[in-house]
TrEMBL record:
Gene3D superfamilies xref list: 3.60.21.10, 5'-Nucleotidase, C-terminal domain, LysM domain
PROSITE patterns named among the record's database cross-references: 5_NUCLEOTIDASE_2 (PS00786), LYSM (PS51782)
GO molecular function, one term: hydrolase activity, acting on ester bonds
Pfam families, per the entry: 5_nucleotid_C, LysM, Metallophos
Hydrolase recorded as keyword: yes
Lineage top rank: taxon: Bacteria
CC annotations in GO: outer membrane-bounded periplasmic space
Disordered: annotated segments: 83-106
Protein name: 2',3'-cyclic-nucleotide 2'-phosphodiesterase
Family membership: Belongs to the 5'-nucleotidase family.
Signal sequence interval, chain numbering: 1-26
Length: 693
């Protein structure tokens, strides 16, 4: 259609006038909130997402960010396709080939456009539902059970993405197979059909060549955005983008940056690698991904909370709200109810307790898709049958592990811990673990072995399991794995008396500070039990009425006070040596003994315990305890003790555990509180009783 020149001029004048006029109009500015999408914002202002996008010159209307400022065009500011009333046109109006712009409506949600993501984490060497340390079934564990659920979910959605969040190849006798070209745990992930494997910190427990070999052996994508090589490139891929039914799903992998801390005694495990902070790296990766995805998923070997100054998944979601859902790991937590900035978070516990599932609903949005809804759930494995194909394929792993666990190495003459649970006396801890509130023959045995082989004066060790014990009868290899969970080696270091005291204070911070009326001893929920060490070769008291950092009292070595400037020979495991280095208590130059350097795998503390019983004790394990330490600063014979203990045994009182369930006994039972709550009757003293008439 042609328009007369006067009309063309009029249109131009009107357009220019409207541009100047718009600057004089009051602008309404909208600040983007977490979870906002452009079409929903447009609805609030009776406009369309196209108009807001064009007015703000958005290069990609699918990507808007919290705190971003958007100017909302008023009706007067919207310049539409010729909206000028045309006075006269040469052709009849009816013949005008007018193409009306469609009024933008809500995005059309395509029926059934759902994306499924499935996740596991911290399976720790478990294929069968079996715990080889105790040589017994474990009802909610293993890839075989997970595979049953995975098959069920993939029958519903064949396009489902399957990921694992790390700590996969370590624990539960998995080290028996480290020399195979492909570790069975990696082989199992390949057989099941995992799309992604995010590395965990325990993947670095062994020689780097072991990890390199198994990364190469994994059939699909290995992720960890925050690991860099010396040349500045990443060690493995930072993310993977999938396209499912036209929808682009980006999955980002992250892990804790503390591998150099945890593997400080074995730098060859991470040789040539550096690790960056997760928030920093998440921001960097999301920027790299801009415009390349419709759904953003985190596959993190990171728990909800951070540690050692690093950030947890909750902080990452707060700082980087572009994530739609984050699969967590590392903390062994079980949750599906956490949400930050519209980002859902889920963690499926450990060992195969559950299959984590996210179902993401998307709607058509211009040429792309926008996330409409995310639902998450943990599907538990306890009542699920194991997948027969997996059982058949990995029968050799189960058979060898059971045989190894049952090798007899000696005879246990008596139970090493009489009352594993301090209050109930049961073999399973439900209240307070005896091993962490008083000296036991079991901890003395581990320290005795460490002292013998290292030639040190002082030893320290932790109770890795609060219910560990040696029970009268045959002493088998599985019993050693039960009392010493990890494949640590032994280190001897020279340490000053001053640094020894600092180290002991660091350990004693495990206890909560005593409050008047406390009937039980309790533990700091922020400190794991494996970070509480008990010492042999010195005598000492722990005064829990004092604040952390001022608790070690009456510390003596061979009857003499420990001197700050004197050098003592201390033996610890390789993991704890990393702690001492990071805390500044010891350096590489202080090492005088390294069992792994001397005798390789035979220098693992598990192997040394077996060797000690067989060769030094003639195969007879006899419990002895020297009671060289005790807790003070609490009235352990409180007048209410018996009554309170009975209330605990009956279930009337419950001792709290940490939120993630990993630390028991995180708050002391206090008699004064119970009296105030009316749950305990106050005991009257003689002075308070009425006198007889």
């Amino acid at each position: 259609m042609k328009i007369r020149k006067p009309l063309t001029l009029l249109v131009a004048v009107l357009m220019i006038t409207s541009m100047f006029a718009s600057s004089a109009l009051a602008k309404e500015v909208y600040t983007v909130k977490p979870g906002d999408v452009l079409w929903k914002i447009a609805e609030q202002y009776d406009t369309t997402w196209e108009e807001i996008a064009e007015f703000n010159e958005l290069s990609n209307p699918h990507l808007i960010y919290p705190e971003q400022k958007l100017e909302i065009p008023s009706k007067e500011q919207i310049v539409e396709e010729p909206v000028v009333e045309e006075p006269v046109v040469e052709e009849p109006v009816a013949e005008e080939p007018v193409v009306e712009e469609p009024v933008a409506e809500d995005p059309v949600v395509e029926e059934g456009k759902k994306i499924t993501v499935l996740g596991t984490s911290d399976v720790h060497g478990r294929i069968y539902a079996y715990e080889y340390a105790t040589d017994s079934p474990d009802a909610d564990a293993g890839f075989a059970k997970l595979q049953t659920l995975i098959k069920q979910e993939k029958a519903k959605d064949p396009n489902a993405i399957l990921l694992d969040c790390g700590d996969t190849v370590q624990d539960n006798s998995a080290e028996l197979f480290n020399d195979l070209p492909v570790h069975p745990m990696v082989q199992a992930m390949n057989s099941i059909g995992y799309d992604l494997w995010t590395l965990g910190n325990h993947e670095f427990n062994f020689d780097k060549s072991f990890l390199d070999r198994n990364i190469d052996a994994f059939s699909n994508n290995v992720l960890a955005a925050n690991i860099y090589k010396e040349d500045g490139t990443r060690y493995v891929e930072p993310y993977k983008i999938f396209e499912k039914d036209g929808v682009r799903i980006a999955v980002v992998g992250l892990l804790p940056p503390h591998i150099p801390r945890w593997e400080a005694s074995a730098p060859e495990h991470f040789q040539g690698l550096t690790f960056t902070q997760p928030v920093e790296e998440a921001k960097k990766v999301v920027k790299e991904l801009q415009g390349k995805y419709d759904i953003l998923v985190g596959a993190f070997h990171i728990g909800p909370d951070g540690e050692y100054g690093s950030q947890g998944a909750l902080e990452i979601a707060e700082a980087v709200p572009e994530f739609n859902v984050i699969f967590c790991g590392h903390a062994h937590s079980k949750f599906s109810d956490k949400e930050v900035n519209g980002t859902k978070l889920i963690e499926p516990g450990c060992y195969g307790w559950a299959l984590a599932k996210a179902e993401i609903t998307v709607g058509k949005y211009g040429n792309g898709y926008v996330v409409e809804d995310v639902t998450v759930e943990n599907i538990e494995t306890a009542e699920v049958e194991e997948d027969k194909d997996i059982l058949n394929e990995f029968e050799f792993v189960h058979k060898k592990s059971v045989e190894d666990a049952n090798i007899v190495v000696g005879q246990i003459e008596e139970d090493y811990v009489k009352n594993v649970d301090y209050i109930t006396g049961d073999a399973k801890v439900t209240t307070m673990p005896t091993a962490q509130v008083e000296d036991t023959a079991l901890m003395d045995l581990i320290n005795e072995v460490q002292l013998f082989y290292s030639g040190a004066d002082i030893s320290s060790a932790a109770a890795f399991k609060n219910d560990m014990n040696l029970v009268k009868g045959e002493f088998k290899k599985k019993d050693v794995a039960n009392i010493y969970k990890y494949t640590n080696t032994l280190i001897g270091v020279n340490i000053t008396g001053e640094n020894l005291k600092k180290y002991m204070e660091w350990s004693a911070s495990y206890y909560n500070t005593y409050k008047e009326g406390d009937v039980t001893v309790s533990f700091n929920p922020d400190i794991r039990g494996f970070n509480y060490d008990m010492f042999a070769g010195v005598d000492y008291d722990i005064d829990i009425s004092q604040e952390a950092g001022n608790r070690i009292k009456n510390l003596t070595f061979k009857g003499e006070p420990v001197k700050d400037d004197e050098i003592y020979k201390l033996t610890i495991n390789n993991y704890r040596f990393g702690t001492l280095k990071n805390e500044g208590f010891a350096t590489d130059e202080d090492v005088f003994y390294d069992s792994y350097e001397l005798i390789q795998d035979a220098g693992r503390i598990r192997a040394l315990i077996v060797k000690y019983i067989q060769e030094e004790k003639e195969g007879k394990a006899v419990p002895t305890v020297d009671n060289n330490w005790k807790i003070i600063g609490i009235d352990l014979e409180n007048a209410y003790k018996d009554t309170v203990f009975e209330m605990i045994k009956s279930g009337e009182l419950t001792i709290p555990t940490s939120e993630d369930g990993r630390t028991p006994n995180v708050k002391s039972i206090n008699a004064n509180d119970l009296i105030e709550e009316g749950k305990l009757e106050e005991i009257k003293t003689d002075e308070e009783l009425p006198k007889a008439s």
